[in-house]
Amino acid sequence: xxxxxxxxxxxxxxATGAARRDGEIVGLHHEDGTPPYDVRWSDTDEVTLVFPGSxxxxxxxxxxxxxxxxxxxxxxxxxxVVLPAGEANPGDIGRRVAAERRRQGFSRAETARRARMxxxxxxxxxxxxxxxxxxxxxxxxxxxxxxVTALRGGxxxxxxGQGRALLHPRLRDLDTEECRALLATHGVGxxxxxxxxxxxxxxxxxxxxxxxxxVFRTAPDSVAASAAExxxxxxxxxxxxxxxxxxxxxxxxxxxxxxxxxAVRGLARRAHTTPWAGGVREMWVSIRPTxxxxxxxxxxxx
Length: 302
Prior knowledge:
Elements (H helix, E strand, L loop, with lengths): L7 E5 L6 E10 L8 E5 L5 E4 L5 E4 L13 E3 L4 E3 L9 H13 L3 H8 L3 H9 L6 H11 L3 H5 L16 E6 L1 H8 L2 E9 L5 E11 L2 E6 L12 E10 L4 E13 L3 H10 L12 E5 L3 E9 L3
Antiparallel strand pairs: 1-2, 1-5, 2-3, 3-4, 6-7, 8-15, 9-10, 9-12, 10-11, 11-14, 12-13, 13-14, 13-15
């Protein structure tokens, strides 16, 4: 018996031929496709390790469908699936799962344990154009502290905060250390400046936190560049639509251009990402906060 990821394992009674159980093969333990398999059962959505007996057979996917013909070899040291070079083709859900997992600092093994699924199946979701069930997404969302809607990319074109307000919300101020923890280490924030024509503007930028300074890259002729040599406000926030909770941090302080060559090279080396806006953005601006404040909204009983 040999199988590929995505094939269907069917167990049926030899006497009657009636199907007793079936499920999708979501993990392989041998690169030649021989048993055992990790199977996600259609009736419970649970993933278990299966050593098929004589009453089991494989329904193979058609050639060219997602996962067909891909040999997978478990990496025992990391419990991750290793795909042949150049063949990884994650879908949007898989990319969001992987990105949120890394943001939370979880390994695949830890995430799989929290979601009660096989590590190989999680690797399959992250690396293939998979279509997980709602039950699987609910488990992953709970394990990662996010929502099914977020993993599906729902509401991408809508402003945050359209969920219902909590019946008994609690709004509290954050101390300086909490603000620093939420601000670090990088992400997307908004800088408030007065543009060249004297009008106020708010611009999103990819930022880093280096030695307590907020730094970002921009182009010399951009609106964000007008922050240099002025006092500015910089804001970062997060909204959990599913729980109607969130936080915001506001930093205020003078901004300046980083001109020392070695400092510029050091910032470029430490940057987690290039500016999302693209283009040539080699001017680094540094904000040294003189004021750091924040607020958090949670349920009153938390």
